[in-house]
Every structure is written in structure tokens, then in C-alpha cells.
Amino acid sequence: MNWMQAHDDAALDQLWQEYALVFREFDDLTLARWLAQTLGQLTGKIWRASHPLVSAYRVASMVAHERQIWLKRLTNRPAPYNEATCCRAPLVPMFTRDVKETGLLCLHCGETAVTLEELPAELTQSILLWCQTYAPVHQVAHWEQAQQQRVANYEDELDRAFEAARDLLLQLHREVLPQLLALYPAVVWEDHDECLDVRPEDLMLR
Asked: Can you give the residue range of the structural domain that contains 99?
């Protein structure tokens, strides 16, 4: 990690801590109820990580994880949700482009909640095929200078990679994530690629 990336990560962490102040003012019971009620709103859909409701829920979950709210059993876990083995919060899996290495992440604690080996074989194959296609596209943003010099115009390669990444992320939402929603009450996906400058607004679902 270079100094600039470390600085950006530290600044982002500081910003999330600022966002969390409103939830730190909640007592434990109020926070538990807010989380349970919001989970009810999330049920039954595939959610962008950038969605404001998901962002608010993730900030509240950060505070809840620090206080071990779900371990205190202050409110009932919404019925459709199983308990995550990583932190015992309700299991809401998050799909990122690093899924091949990390599996599905827990929305509450950020650890691996579901490994690919735990998923049905057909779904695992779909995920691995998507990863295999997406990896070289993403890697264009990380080409060394020697690789860049092998092509006529690196900026053109970046533009093509942007378009390919955008199409593949839309394909992910259309073909792979619905299979996950058949297994879990709600699914969150990483709807951007900052390395290729693919933003949520570039991924129009309708």
C-alpha cells in the first residue's frame, strides 16, 4: 500500500466514523430495533452497496458490531435470516469482485460469511466463470509501464476496459445475483470499480 492509498483509506475511515455518530447516540435497544426494522425493508431484493439505505445500515452495523448488539439478543432476528457464523448477526451476504478469494462477505463485520465451497456447485461455477472473465478486464487498470507500452494507446485500452467492466457488472446483476437471492433473503453487491472509474451511475439497471 502506497502513502496516498493509506491516506485515502484513513480519510475514508474517519468519514465513516463521522457518519456513525448518529447511531452512537442510540441506546442498545433502539439500535437493535432500528437494525431489525431496516432488515425487514431489505428483505427480498438485490441491493446496490451504494444505495443510501444500505449505506446507513452498514454504518449502524459497524456500531452494533462494536457493541455486540446481536449477541445481546435485544430483539428477534427477522425470520428469513440465518445467523452468520462469523459474528452471529443476521446473514446478509455481500458480493464483491474479489469473491473468488474472499467468498461472500458479511455485511455486518466484513469477514467471509460464505465460502464458494458452501454454495451449490452450479452457482459456484457461474461465479467462477464471471470472475475469470472480469479479472483480466480489471487488471488493465493495473498494467505496469512495460505492458502499457505494448499497446498503441493505453487510454483506448482503459476505455475498452471501462465498457467491458460495466457490461460484466450488469451481467452479474442480471444472471448471477438472482441465483444468490434464491438462497438468501437479501443480497448486496459492489456496484462500482474505482480502478476503472466505473461508478454506480454508470450501471443503469433499467
From this structure: 3-202
